Amino acid sequence: MKIAIIGGTGSIGKGFALRWGQKHQVIVGSREQEKARAKAAEYNGILKDYGFKADISGDVNEKAASEADVVLLAIRYGQIASTIEQIKPGLEGKIVISVVVPMEKDRCIIVPEGVPLEIPTNSREDYKADYFCYVTPPAGSAAQEIAPLLPERTELVSAFHNVPAAKLANLDIELNYDVGVCGNSMHSKNIVFGLVRDIPGMRPMDIGPIETSSMVESITPLLVNVAIRNHMKDVGIKFVD
Q1: 163 band by pLDDT with thresholds 50, 70 and 90
Q2: Strands 25-30 vs 55-60: parallel, antiparallel or unpaired
Q3: pTM of the model as a whole
Q4: 215 burial level (CB within 10 Å; 0-12, 13-18, 19+)
Q5: Which of 103, 110, 201, 213 could lock onto 143 through a cystine, CB 3.0 to 4.6 A?
Q6: Where are the domains of the chain?
Q7: What integer is the mean pLDDT of 171-199?
Q8: How far is residue 51's CA from residue 96's CA, in Å, rounded to a whole number?
Q9: Among 29, 83, 22, 88, which Cα is nearest to 57's?
């Protein structure tokens, strides 16, 4: 399978490229072609050192998307509209996976008793929280904001939100995480289930339709807060019964 990682030069993109590059043809996407190609060469070199003959290439986002079977959006929430506009012509009829999480620290405001809810902009610094929070998009989740921006025959799946980037990119570490998968088509979800299983130690969990994405996306800031406050690193999730 040919997988384009839009934002593939970032930390989470690196992890996916190294894990999927062992079995699939991966295209690292970036706004800058030279940067994409340099990172692709770096990832090929890492996998070669581990004994894998990888086929990772790099190109600008729009070309990467147009050449792939599956397109992974490993971008920041604020880049959604501009990135999809850039790659939209190459998304028709394909599966798009969103790992986007709208979380921030600066937007978390604690309002003490007696302070007006409408805090003046110049006073907001005094009320910022010291934890990360999920910033709920107007549509309900990042995935629900992405959905109407895609071509009609494109199938959207949201997944991999709670996978620690550092551990994903460290091939010396054995992973042991569950991955929540949300989507409206069992065809596309089954393909993503397979991509989850292609990463040793990962187990896919069907969460429901794309409307359930907010539940999974919002776990990420929770995990970050748990890690920071309890002196842990790269916290993930595992469901037990």
Answers
A1: very high
A2: parallel
A3: 0.90
A4: middle
A5: 213
A6: 2-102+137-229
A7: 97
A8: 30
A9: 29
How far apart (Å, rounded) are the C-alpha atoms in residues 157 and 211?
11
The per-residue pLDDT for 106 is 59
> Other C-beta atoms within 10 Å of 135: how many?
17
Q: What pLDDT does 132 receive?
A: 87
What six digits make up the tokens of 239? Answer: 């469901």
Residue 97 contacts residue 193 (beta carbons within 8 Å): no
Phi, psi of 5 (to 5 degrees): -110, 100
**What does the pLDDT look like over 56-79, one tens digit per residue?**
999 999 999 999 999 999 999 999
Contact residues for 70 (Cβ-Cβ < 8 A; gap 6+): 1, 2, 3, 4, 94, 95, 96, 97, 191, 195
Q: Is 89 exposed, middle or buried (0-12, 13-18, 19+ CB in 10 A)?
A: exposed
Helix/strand/coil for 74: coil
The contacts of residue 162 (CB under 8 Å, 6+ apart) are: 177, 179, 180, 216, 219, 220, 223, 236, 237
Q: What integer best gives the mean pLDDT of the chain?
A: 91
- pLDDT at residue 29, rounded to an integer: 98
* Domain 2-102+137-229 sits in CATH 3.40.190.10: no
Residue 233: Cβ-neighbour burial (10 angstroms; 0-12, 13-18, 19+):
exposed
Q: Answer yes or no: are the C-beta atoms of 177 and 203 closer than 8 Å.
A: yes
Confidence of residue 233 (pLDDT cuts 50, 70, 90): confident
pLDDT at 123 over 50: no
